[in-house]
Amino acid sequence: MTGQVKNIVWQETKISREERYILNTHRSCLLWFTGLSGAGKSTLAIAVEKELHHYGIRSYVLDGDNIRHGLNNNLGFSPADRKENNRRIGEVSKLFVDAGMVTLAAFISPYREDRDMVCKLFPNDEFIEVFVKCPLEVCETRDPKGMYKKARKGEIQEFTGISAPYEEPLSPEIVIESNTQTLEQSVKQVIQYLKQNYYLDYIGRSEFDTM
User: Fold this and answer.
1) What would the pLDDT profile of 152-165 be if each residue is shown by its tens digit?
2) Catalytic: which of 109, 178, 186, 206?
3) Which domains are assigned to the chain?
4) Is 109 a catalytic residue?
5) Distance (Å, rounded) from C-alpha 160 to C-alpha 157?
6) What is the pLDDT of residues 90-146, one digit of tens each?
7) pTM of the prediction?
Protein backbone atom coordinates (compact mmCIF):
# COMPACT_ATOMS: atom_id res chain seq x y z
CA MET A 1 0.00 0.00 0.00
CA THR A 2 1.07 3.60 -0.58
CA GLY A 3 3.39 4.91 2.12
CA GLN A 4 4.04 1.45 3.64
CA VAL A 5 7.23 0.45 1.81
CA LYS A 6 10.07 -0.08 4.28
CA ASN A 7 13.83 -0.48 4.17
CA ILE A 8 14.42 1.94 1.31
CA VAL A 9 16.74 4.95 1.28
CA TRP A 10 16.69 7.94 -1.06
CA GLN A 11 19.79 7.80 -3.29
CA GLU A 12 21.37 11.22 -3.68
CA THR A 13 22.99 12.08 -7.03
CA LYS A 14 26.22 13.96 -7.61
CA ILE A 15 24.65 16.71 -9.70
CA SER A 16 23.01 19.59 -7.84
CA ARG A 17 19.91 21.48 -8.94
CA GLU A 18 22.02 24.59 -9.46
CA GLU A 19 24.40 22.69 -11.75
CA ARG A 20 21.44 21.62 -13.87
CA TYR A 21 20.24 25.23 -13.97
CA ILE A 22 23.65 26.37 -15.22
CA LEU A 23 23.74 23.67 -17.89
CA ASN A 24 20.21 24.53 -19.04
CA THR A 25 20.63 28.30 -18.51
CA HIS A 26 17.17 28.37 -16.91
CA ARG A 27 15.44 27.25 -13.73
CA SER A 28 12.90 24.46 -13.44
CA CYS A 29 9.34 24.51 -12.11
CA LEU A 30 5.95 22.86 -12.37
CA LEU A 31 3.13 24.67 -14.15
CA TRP A 32 -0.05 22.96 -12.96
CA PHE A 33 -2.94 23.76 -15.33
CA THR A 34 -6.32 23.14 -13.70
CA GLY A 35 -9.85 23.78 -14.93
CA LEU A 36 -12.97 22.17 -16.31
CA SER A 37 -12.91 19.74 -19.21
CA GLY A 38 -12.95 21.83 -22.37
CA ALA A 39 -11.49 24.92 -20.67
CA GLY A 40 -8.36 24.68 -22.80
CA LYS A 41 -5.76 23.33 -20.38
CA SER A 42 -4.01 20.93 -22.75
CA THR A 43 -4.23 23.33 -25.69
CA LEU A 44 -2.57 26.05 -23.62
CA ALA A 45 0.06 23.78 -22.07
CA ILE A 46 1.09 22.48 -25.50
CA ALA A 47 1.25 26.00 -26.93
CA VAL A 48 3.35 27.24 -24.01
CA GLU A 49 5.71 24.28 -24.39
CA LYS A 50 6.14 25.06 -28.09
CA GLU A 51 7.05 28.66 -27.27
CA LEU A 52 9.50 27.57 -24.60
CA HIS A 53 11.09 25.05 -26.96
CA HIS A 54 11.53 27.76 -29.57
CA TYR A 55 13.75 29.62 -27.11
CA GLY A 56 15.73 26.57 -26.03
CA ILE A 57 13.94 25.97 -22.72
CA ARG A 58 13.87 22.30 -21.76
CA SER A 59 10.24 21.43 -21.08
CA TYR A 60 7.70 18.62 -21.20
CA VAL A 61 3.90 18.34 -21.08
CA LEU A 62 2.19 15.77 -18.87
CA ASP A 63 -1.38 15.55 -20.15
CA GLY A 64 -4.27 13.99 -18.24
CA ASP A 65 -5.52 11.74 -21.04
CA ASN A 66 -2.00 10.68 -22.06
CA ILE A 67 -1.11 9.66 -18.52
CA ARG A 68 -4.27 7.58 -18.23
CA HIS A 69 -3.21 5.59 -21.29
CA GLY A 70 -0.25 4.20 -19.39
CA LEU A 71 0.92 5.08 -15.89
CA ASN A 72 -2.59 5.63 -14.50
CA ASN A 73 -4.64 3.30 -16.71
CA ASN A 74 -5.83 1.40 -13.64
CA LEU A 75 -7.55 4.44 -12.12
CA GLY A 76 -11.14 5.59 -12.50
CA PHE A 77 -12.73 8.93 -11.65
CA SER A 78 -13.92 8.48 -8.08
CA PRO A 79 -12.60 11.04 -5.57
CA ALA A 80 -10.14 8.43 -4.26
CA ASP A 81 -8.89 7.57 -7.75
CA ARG A 82 -8.59 11.23 -8.68
CA LYS A 83 -6.49 11.79 -5.56
CA GLU A 84 -4.19 8.90 -6.48
CA ASN A 85 -4.02 10.16 -10.06
CA ASN A 86 -2.86 13.55 -8.84
CA ARG A 87 -0.45 12.04 -6.33
CA ARG A 88 1.29 9.98 -9.00
CA ILE A 89 1.50 12.91 -11.38
CA GLY A 90 2.84 15.09 -8.59
CA GLU A 91 5.63 12.59 -7.91
CA VAL A 92 6.46 12.24 -11.62
CA SER A 93 6.46 16.03 -11.98
CA LYS A 94 8.81 16.30 -9.02
CA LEU A 95 11.32 14.08 -10.84
CA PHE A 96 11.02 16.15 -14.03
CA VAL A 97 11.56 19.38 -12.10
CA ASP A 98 14.51 17.86 -10.26
CA ALA A 99 15.97 16.99 -13.67
CA GLY A 100 15.88 20.70 -14.48
CA MET A 101 12.87 20.86 -16.79
CA VAL A 102 9.96 23.27 -16.96
CA THR A 103 7.14 20.77 -16.50
CA LEU A 104 3.60 21.48 -17.67
CA ALA A 105 0.89 19.29 -16.13
CA ALA A 106 -2.61 19.64 -17.58
CA PHE A 107 -5.21 17.95 -15.34
CA ILE A 108 -8.73 18.82 -14.29
CA SER A 109 -7.67 18.12 -10.68
CA PRO A 110 -11.03 19.31 -9.33
CA TYR A 111 -10.30 19.19 -5.59
CA ARG A 112 -8.27 21.87 -3.78
CA GLU A 113 -7.04 19.32 -1.27
CA ASP A 114 -5.47 17.24 -4.04
CA ARG A 115 -3.81 20.25 -5.68
CA ASP A 116 -2.49 21.34 -2.28
CA MET A 117 -1.08 17.85 -1.82
CA VAL A 118 0.92 18.22 -5.03
CA CYS A 119 1.98 21.76 -4.13
CA LYS A 120 3.50 20.52 -0.86
CA LEU A 121 5.89 18.30 -2.82
CA PHE A 122 7.67 21.42 -4.09
CA PRO A 123 9.46 24.43 -2.61
CA ASN A 124 7.21 27.50 -2.62
CA ASP A 125 8.52 28.91 -5.89
CA GLU A 126 8.57 25.68 -7.92
CA PHE A 127 4.80 25.02 -8.01
CA ILE A 128 2.85 27.44 -10.19
CA GLU A 129 -0.92 26.97 -10.26
CA VAL A 130 -2.49 28.06 -13.54
CA PHE A 131 -6.27 28.30 -13.36
CA VAL A 132 -7.71 28.03 -16.87
CA LYS A 133 -11.03 29.66 -16.09
CA CYS A 134 -13.98 29.12 -18.39
CA PRO A 135 -17.74 29.08 -17.68
CA LEU A 136 -19.33 25.63 -17.70
CA GLU A 137 -21.76 26.61 -20.44
CA VAL A 138 -18.87 27.62 -22.71
CA CYS A 139 -17.02 24.38 -22.02
CA GLU A 140 -20.18 22.48 -22.91
CA THR A 141 -20.48 24.24 -26.26
CA ARG A 142 -16.91 23.24 -27.09
CA ASP A 143 -17.17 19.62 -25.90
CA PRO A 144 -14.70 18.24 -28.49
CA LYS A 145 -15.00 14.69 -27.16
CA GLY A 146 -18.77 14.73 -26.63
CA MET A 147 -18.22 14.04 -22.93
CA TYR A 148 -20.62 16.64 -21.57
CA LYS A 149 -23.46 15.29 -23.71
CA LYS A 150 -22.81 11.80 -22.40
CA ALA A 151 -22.61 13.10 -18.83
CA ARG A 152 -25.91 14.96 -19.21
CA LYS A 153 -27.50 11.72 -20.39
CA GLY A 154 -26.10 9.85 -17.40
CA GLU A 155 -23.80 7.75 -19.56
CA ILE A 156 -20.72 9.00 -17.69
CA GLN A 157 -20.74 9.05 -13.91
CA GLU A 158 -18.77 11.41 -11.65
CA PHE A 159 -18.11 13.88 -14.47
CA THR A 160 -16.64 17.15 -13.21
CA GLY A 161 -19.03 20.08 -13.48
CA ILE A 162 -22.08 17.86 -14.04
CA SER A 163 -22.25 15.04 -11.51
CA ALA A 164 -19.05 15.84 -9.61
CA PRO A 165 -17.83 19.17 -8.22
CA TYR A 166 -15.02 21.45 -9.35
CA GLU A 167 -13.41 23.55 -6.62
CA GLU A 168 -11.85 26.68 -8.10
CA PRO A 169 -8.37 27.68 -6.89
CA LEU A 170 -8.42 30.31 -4.17
CA SER A 171 -5.13 32.03 -4.99
CA PRO A 172 -3.61 30.73 -8.22
CA GLU A 173 -0.42 32.33 -9.48
CA ILE A 174 -1.91 32.73 -12.96
CA VAL A 175 -5.54 33.04 -14.07
CA ILE A 176 -6.30 32.52 -17.75
CA GLU A 177 -9.82 33.43 -18.88
CA SER A 178 -9.91 31.21 -21.92
CA ASN A 179 -13.40 32.28 -23.00
CA THR A 180 -12.25 35.88 -23.55
CA GLN A 181 -8.49 35.59 -24.19
CA THR A 182 -6.96 34.34 -27.41
CA LEU A 183 -4.51 31.46 -27.23
CA GLU A 184 -1.71 33.84 -28.19
CA GLN A 185 -2.61 36.21 -25.33
CA SER A 186 -2.77 33.32 -22.88
CA VAL A 187 0.62 31.96 -23.92
CA LYS A 188 2.16 35.40 -23.59
CA GLN A 189 0.68 35.78 -20.09
CA VAL A 190 2.25 32.52 -18.91
CA ILE A 191 5.61 33.31 -20.53
CA GLN A 192 5.63 36.78 -19.01
CA TYR A 193 5.02 35.32 -15.56
CA LEU A 194 7.95 32.93 -15.97
CA LYS A 195 10.14 35.72 -17.28
CA GLN A 196 9.24 38.24 -14.58
CA ASN A 197 9.89 35.67 -11.85
CA TYR A 198 13.29 34.72 -13.30
CA TYR A 199 12.56 31.13 -14.30
CA LEU A 200 13.83 31.65 -17.83
CA ASP A 201 17.02 33.61 -17.12
CA TYR A 202 19.47 31.83 -14.86
CA ILE A 203 22.75 33.11 -16.30
CA GLY A 204 21.86 36.17 -18.29
CA ARG A 205 19.72 34.92 -21.15
CA SER A 206 18.56 37.74 -23.38
CA GLU A 207 16.21 35.97 -25.82
CA PHE A 208 13.09 36.97 -23.89
CA ASP A 209 13.91 40.68 -23.62
CA THR A 210 11.64 41.56 -26.53
CA MET A 211 8.68 39.45 -25.41
Assistant:
1) 999 999 999 999 99
2) 109
3) 23-196 (3.40.50.300)
4) yes
5) 9
6) 999 999 999 999 999 999 999 999 999 999 999 879 999 999 999 999 999 998 789
7) 0.89
